[in-house]
Amino acid sequence: MYAQILRLGKKVIKHLLGMGGPDKRVKTLYEEKEYLEAYSQHTDLRVEADPKSAVGGKWEEIGQLQFEFLINKGLQSHHKILDIGCGTLRGGRHFIKYLNIGNYSGIDISPKAIAYAIQLVQQEGLSEKNPHLLVSEKKDLKFREFSGETFDYVLAQSVFTHLKPEHIKECFENIGHIMQENSAFYFTYVKGEEYKQTRLEGFCYPFSFFESLAEQHGFTLQDVSNGYNHPRGQLMVELMNKR
Fold this sequence. Notes:
By secondary structure, this protein is an alpha/beta fold. The chain has eight helices and nine strands. Helix 3 packs parallel to helix 6 (111-123).
């Protein structure tokens, strides 16, 4: 009986926080706030309820999937990686363990997610790896937090799935500033025949949307989803500088 009550309680909490369907409180949040501010606060609420489910669940499966994918793409311990939208370190914890000291950077617009990430690093005995975990105070994708710094790999897992076109355009305009000649940027998206908002914080895009942006900013794109079996069907794209 106690277990049933506990499960019911969790369902109620998830519903109230918009994880099982947005309630009036969450809808009001998106109606009254600028989108990224609303999404940040919504994520904070979900982290408070369940840090692992807050970033999409399937904690072990998708965390390991991200890690193995980049290993297969040539990631080595001496490389530097930026994890955009690192959340509560579903994938980040694997990268931090593997990479040399100071080579992992993660950024997120949710202060609660970063606070949990810092706590997780301590709990898992990874503090000596000195990961750089930052809150995106301005909630943009101009990467001013990393001025003068470049990365070998940049990852945005389940980030563009929650961003509007103007946010993705901003990312394409600025991502080159933190990439070297041979750097690679990997991002996932949900494919649609056309751009569409599927829920309060969910969006799908045609591949042509990213192709157009890449052409404008001097990048090449390649769909590499064959090597990325995402359990919810997100597709993986590789972006690199034109050679």
